[in-house]
Amino acid sequence: MDSIMMPLIPILTSIALFVAITFISLAVIKARLKNRELLSKEIIIAIENGADIPLPVPKERNYLNLGLIWSLVGYCFMVLF
Hints:
- The chain contains two helices and no strands.
- It is mainly alpha-helical and 81 residues long.
- The protein is elongated and about 70 Å long.
C-alpha cells in the first residue's frame, strides 16, 4: 500500500497546485477584462456626450505575483516529470 501511495501524493499535489494556479489566473484575467470593458463603455459615453476624456494611467506590473506563479508552475512540472 505504501509503495503505491508514495509516488502518488506528490503527483496529485502538483496537479492540484497547477489547477489552482490556472483557475486563479483565469479569474484575475476575467476581472481585468471586465474592468477594461467598463472603462471602454465609459469612454464611449463620454465621447458621445462631448466630455473631455482623461487618458488612463498605466499601472505598474506586480513582478512578485508573476514570479510566484512561474515558480509554482515550474515546481509542478519538476515534480510531474
